[in-house]
Write a structure and sequence with these properties.
The chain is α+β, with helices and mostly antiparallel strands. The protein has two domains: about 5-155; about 160-400, Aminoglycoside 3'-phosphotransferase, Chain: A, domain 2, CATH 3.90.1200. Helix content is about 35%, strand content about 15%. The strands form five sheets. Strands 1-3-4-6-8-7 form a six-stranded antiparallel beta sheet, with helices on both faces. Strand 11 and strand 12 form a beta hairpin. Helix 7 packs antiparallel against helix 8 (about 270-290). The protein is globular. The two termini are about 30 Å apart.
């Protein structure tokens, strides 16, 4: 799963849509009026790193100058805009921070899992700021999850830093060793944050539904509702795995034909495949009852790659894009490895694979140095639970070549 990709200078120079200009101004006014004061809809209008403050009379009377808005990146689920704003007094002098300067405006597109994707991102940013400040994250200034306030968005701190993916090839070998060690230490620190269930995070910093790509594909987001299947949190690995089967069974039993890949159903029907999934679910449930899985539930970022780690030199300035993060079994923490840069040719692919392997080894080494029990080292170094990985996907009927 990949975060928003930076765009070209020519794309950034295109005219900003009026809807984004209006949204930027709307967000600025919200932050000006509600700075530090959660309003009745539960929206937050303060930095996670600042004490709550009442707006001053001077602040409330200030006038927002027209913001400058630039598209920074586009991804599968969000557009990321840089908004430069300032507040002025009636005598045209500039008022002090926080609204003078820049902030990031993340605007989800139609493919995102609303409202849970926004709530999950905001929840984890707030959780990390409060409970794990040694891993830096952007401060949340404001958000709307579309539950009654128009277009959804997240307004968060702008961090002027270079992504690890862009910086990696400029590092010396010694610097790469330093950065790889810091990334490994960060992964291990995430593995030390334990929960009593599998789940995502809410802005109230309590566990909620998980947000995962496999819950979005091909219209599945329409059924992400507890009346359709158990969306979480999950008290056990068994409950989580069986919920994945229930999700797919419900989907193939109810999905409109336009959502389905018709090439997959030349030899069977969606309903027949749903019945086959029910039989497979029963078999998996019996296997789980015979061999119960028990491992800690830890914080997994789930998209920890070079684009989502911001660097200043060899220091980690921030970790961004927490929308798919969650509490998951420890075996999932390091199962996908770590892509430090984008693989665009043979050279970058070789570099990425080499350092992905090295970071995975460092993760295990750091965990041992920090005194982890062998019972935790085993799932950490396992490469992932095969049963979990087999269900956390889009289930499809087998098609003969």
């Amino acid at each position: 799963m990949s975060g928003p990709k930076p765009i070209s200078e020519s794309a950034a120079a295109k005219e900003v849509p009026h809807a984004i200009v209006s949204l930027s101004q709307h967000v600025i006014e919200r932050m000006k009026q509600n700075r530090g004061v959660p309003n009745s809809t539960g929206m937050v209008a303060c930095s996670a790193h600042q004490d709550l403050q009442q707006p001053t009379v001077e602040y409330e009377r200030a006038v927002s100058a027209a913001p400058q808005t630039t598209l920074l990146a586009q991804g599968g689920y969000n557009d990321v805009w840089l908004v430069k704003s300032k507040l002025v007094r009636n005598d045209s002098t500039i008022i002090s921070q926080p609204l003078n300067g820049s902030f990031i405006l993340r605007v989800p597109n139609e493919d995102s899992l609303k409202p849970h994707q926004i709530r999950n991102e905001v929840g984890w940013l707030m959780y990390m700021a409060k409970h794990c400040p040694e891993i830096p994250v952007p401060a949340v200034y404001d958000y709307s999850d579309e539950s009654g306030d128009g277009r959804p968005f997240i307004a968060e701190q702008y961090i002027d830093a270079k992504s690890l993916a862009d910086a990696w090839m400029t590092f010396s070998d010694a610097e790469k060793d330093i950065v790889a060690r810091k990334v490994a230490e960060m992964v291990v620190r995430l593995g030390e944050i334990r929960f009593d269930a599998i789940g995502g995070m809410t802005p109230h910093t309590i566990l909620g539904p998980t947000v995962e790509g496999a819950k979005l594909f091909k219209g599945r987001d329409a059924y992400h509702d507890p009346i359709c299947y158990d969306i979480g949190p999950y008290a056990s690995i068994k409950q989580y795995i069986l919920a994945y089967f229930d999700k797919e069974i419900y989907y193939y039993s109810h999905a409109d034909e336009t959502m389905l890949d018709q090439d997959l159903f030349e030899e069977t029907t969606p309903n027949e495949f749903a019945q086959a999934l029910k039989k497979k679910r029963a078999c998996v449930e019996a296997e789980l009852d015979a061999s119960p899985r028990a491992e800690p539930f830890v914080l997994c970022h789930n998209d920890l790659q070079g684009r989502n780690i911001l660097m200043r030199g060899t220091e980690i300035a921030a970790v961004i894009d927490w929308e798919f993060a969650g509490s998951f079994p420890l075996s999932e923490l390091n199962s996908d490895g770590m892509e430090v840069l984008e693989m665009v040719d043979d050279e970058t692919e070789e570099e990425c694979m080499q350092w992905s392997s090295k970071i995975s080894e460092l993760v295990e080494q750091v965990a041992r140095e920090r005194g982890w029990e062998e019972s935790d080292i085993e799932p950490l170094a396992s490469g992932g639970d095969s049963t979990l990985q087999s269900v956390r996907v889009e289930m499809m009927p087998e098609v003969e070549d």
